[in-house]
Recover the amino acids of this structure.
């Protein structure tokens, strides 16, 4: 009896961490419903991937050997056919850029409700309660639904599954309608690079929306100079063109692990936190004591950065 | 070519707020054009300025209150707007992805656009799923999380970049008609000019009920119910430095020196 079908994620020959996290989330859910956890791995070197994915708690792994890299048409068709074959109660997919490129389509095709970006899951076998955030992390909510559903899960919310399993690995015979693939991937490109690699920095002075305007960026640069540190930023600063793309910390930017990360005027959206939570010491300077960044900061100053930063710079000049 | 842009008015929340039941108390809420949709509007208007689009139409699901937000999009250059509202929507606490898709599908069937642009997600409930679900529903091609669109649309193909995690972009070709979900940073959204704001007042804003669109009122009930809302518990034991800016900066300076950071 299949109760949970979890779809794994990989890119350019590597399984992504979420693939092991989704095993943990899927196992918990399968235990609550008294069913089995099935995984699917679609495209790429599926047999190699299946061996790596065979961790504790996985009952079966279905390999779909079709194409090299992610294509949302292949994923949509494969997941739909797996659903028809296995009749799971819940389908879990990663809340990654690629997960969001096929999971809503599968939900629509199968006429299933979809709940995205889950940070918690619980079921009594009938009702599924999904914990998620709203308003950029200011509140948490519980949403409930009955029956079957597709849920996308946020990365780094569940621990990585460990231990070797003894899953049944089988090649799933998929029928892909090439005429209905719906897009053609023509390549990949690394962006950023350039003069500075923020992922190598020991100390980052990182600036966010609180800086208000481009003309204020120099006060951050002066502080970085005084500390012999590197300037980085959250997404809006790069979107506005105030700093180059290679300075962006976060899910769509760089993952950084400095000794000290000084977050200045950064609220701490989940996409940003994903890129810097591995920093050794995190200092947050923000007027809003309830900003999500305070949840992961080691030290905080709840004050106006335009007062604090010049005083700090002066202390080092 | 006609472009349809989905425009949502999102709720914004003050730094300090209170929760009443499963909602934030009204006095702490504001309203704004969804940030991601702002970029989608800008992209459509730029396609029009490049001579590729003949008409840019916005569609919004929302009550009369949100007309000010719709006028913002018109002031930035959209030609006309459609607002969908109905008594049946009044009491729905979660308009889920399926319900939104059903409503938007009916609008698309009336309008027959060549290209649909939506924001990647909304700033309030953050579903991030409606654009792709809508594309599948319509049998359109699609691409999610687009941060670059080539404006030539040669041979009816949109060449886009999708922003993956970790500083990698995927290059993808999508044939029109298509839905693209637009990521922030794809362009620089303009401020509405005074002239634009004046013109927006005269642009057509058509209000449609579910019956007008042929959508069954039962479709909006959705499958998902909101049962709880609360402030998340802090996971850290953060040390908060108190005092004036001089004091707090001094304490941070001390920490940095302890860590061997400063000269």
């Amino acid at each position: 009896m299949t109760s949970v079908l979890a779809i794994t994620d990989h890119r350019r020959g590597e399984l992504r961490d979420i693939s092991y996290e989704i095993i943990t989330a899927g196992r918990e859910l399968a235990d609550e419903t008294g069913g089995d956890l099935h995984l699917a791995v679609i495209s790429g070197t599926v047999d190699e991937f299946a061996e790596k994915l065979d961790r504790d708690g996985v009952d079966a792994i279905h390999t779909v050997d079709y194409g090299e890299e992610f294509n949302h048409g292949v994923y949509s068709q494969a997941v739909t056919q797996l659903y028809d074959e296995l009749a799971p109660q819940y389908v879990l997919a990663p809340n990654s850029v690629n997960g969001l490129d096929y999971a809503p389509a599968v939900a629509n095709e199968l006429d299933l409700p979809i709940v995205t970006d889950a940070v918690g899951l619980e079921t009594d076998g009938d009702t599924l309660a999904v914990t998620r955030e709203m308003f950029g992390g200011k509140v948490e909510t519980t949403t409930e639904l009955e029956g079957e559903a597709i849920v996308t899960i946020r990365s780094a919310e569940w621990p990585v599954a460990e231990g070797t399993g003894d899953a049944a690995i089988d090649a799933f015979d998929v029928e892909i309608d090439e005429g209905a693939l719906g897009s053609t991937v023509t390549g990949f490109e690394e962006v950023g690079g350039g003069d500075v690699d923020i992922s190598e920095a020991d100390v980052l002075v990182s600036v966010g929306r609180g800086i208000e305007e481009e003309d204020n960026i120099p006060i951050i640069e002066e502080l970085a100079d005084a500390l012999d540190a590197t300037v980085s930023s959250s997404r809006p600063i790069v979107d506005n063109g105030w700093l180059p793309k290679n300075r962006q910390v976060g899910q769509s930017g760089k993952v950084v692990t400095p000794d000290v990360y000084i977050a200045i005027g950064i609220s701490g959206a989940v996409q940003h936190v994903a890129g810097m939570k591995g920093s050794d010491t995190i200092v947050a300077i923000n007027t809003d004591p309830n900003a999500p960044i305070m949840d992961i900061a080691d030290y905080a100053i709840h004050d106006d950065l335009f007062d604090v930063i010049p005083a700090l710079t002066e202390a080092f000049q | 070519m006609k472009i349809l842009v989905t425009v949502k008015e999102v709720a914004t929340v003050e730094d300090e707020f209170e929760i009443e039941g499963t909602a934030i108390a009204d006095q702490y809420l504001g309203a704004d054009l969804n940030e991601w949709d702002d970029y989608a509007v800008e992209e459509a208007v730029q396609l029009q300025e490049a001579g590729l689009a003949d008409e840019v139409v916005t569609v919004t699901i929302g009550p009369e209150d949100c007309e000010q937000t719709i006028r913002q999009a018109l002031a930035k250059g959209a030609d006309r707007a459609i607002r969908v509202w109905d008594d049946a929507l009044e009491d729905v606490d979660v308009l889920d992805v399926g319900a939104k898709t059903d409503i938007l599908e009916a609008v698309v069937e009336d309008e027959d656009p060549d290209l649909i642009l939506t924001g990647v997600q909304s700033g309030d409930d953050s579903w991030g799923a409606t654009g792709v679900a809508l594309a599948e529903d319509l049998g359109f091609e699609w691409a999610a999380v687009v941060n670059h669109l080539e404006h030539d649309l040669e041979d009816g193909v949109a060449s886009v970049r999708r922003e993956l995690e970790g500083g990698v972009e995927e290059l993808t070709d999508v044939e029109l008609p298509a839905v693209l979900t637009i990521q922030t940073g794809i362009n620089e959204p303009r401020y509405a000019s005074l002239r634009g704001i004046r013109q927006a007042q005269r642009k057509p804003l058509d209000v449609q009920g579910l019956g007008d669109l042929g959508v069954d009122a039962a479709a909006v009930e959705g499958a998902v119910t909101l049962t709880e809302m609360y402030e998340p518990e802090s996971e850290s034991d953060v040390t908060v430095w108190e005092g004036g800016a001089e004091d707090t900066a001094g304490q941070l300076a001390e920490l940095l020196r302890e860590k061997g950071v400063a000269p």
Summary: The first strand of chain B starts at residue 2 and ends at 6. The helical segments of chain B are 35-49, 67-75, 87-90, 97-111, 130-138, 194-202, 210-213, 245-258.
